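Human: Not sure, check this?
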Amino acid sequence: MAVSASHALHLRNVKMEQTYSKVLNRNLNAASLGAERKYDMSTQIDEHAARELELYMENDEPIYRQRIMPIEENLKKKIKRGNYSLGLSVKLWMYAVDDAAKKYTKEFGSEGLPWNKQFPKPVRLYVATRAAIQFALDNGQEVSKHDQKAVGF
């Protein structure tokens, strides 16, 4: 049975979205559970902190030049080759988000509050997921409505 190229692409995208949804839910749940135990906080994500970190990451020139540009170039190559994975791109974006959190805390943070307490893992994962979804949408990749809604798009 022959499958058209567009149908095969659709099937790949559906499988990717299902896999991504599972990865996103698992990561958010695991991070939230870990945050409850480690940080003694609710599973609600501090959207103000997330937005502040997101804006800082996007507007800091060294982070943009040294982290974001290479990540985008890498992901564009993967899209061109056809082996782009939204779930794995979140991992890449976490590097930029972690660097931004460290630098933000060093520049504006409270005394004695480490970067990973100021921006707990659920917040950083949320920012990385938003960046990955925004990149995917900007580059013509399909993202399920469920995933977009999960991070406020």
Summary: Residues 15-39+47-150 form one domain. The first helix runs from residue 5 to 39. The chain has seven helices and no strands.
